[in-house]
Amino acid sequence: MASKSLQDLKQQVQGAAQEAVTAAGSSAQQVVDQATEAGQKAMDQVAKATQETIDKTANQASETFSGFGKKLGLIR
């Protein structure tokens, strides 16, 4: 009878340990997912800022060359 109780206790402890491992794994995955999402958002912001800078530079260059063309009489 005591052996049956010990066996039941052992199974309960193993079950609880397995649940703890599963919960820890799930929590770790959530942390990884959140870090990945944050990294992606940061990369999106860098890409957007870079594109905006490229667009502004291209516009400024176009305006500058247009101004030169007007001064040289090539553009009216």
Automatic annotation (TrEMBL):
Recorded superkingdom: Eukaryota
Any one Gene Ontology cellular component term annotated for this protein: nucleus
InterPro entries: ADIRF
GO terms (BP aspect): positive regulation of fat cell differentiation
PANTHER family: ADIPOGENESIS REGULATORY FACTOR (PTHR39227)
Protein name according to UniProt: Adipogenesis regulatory factor
Organism: Lynx canadensis
Higher taxonomy: Eukaryota, Metazoa, Chordata, Craniata, Vertebrata
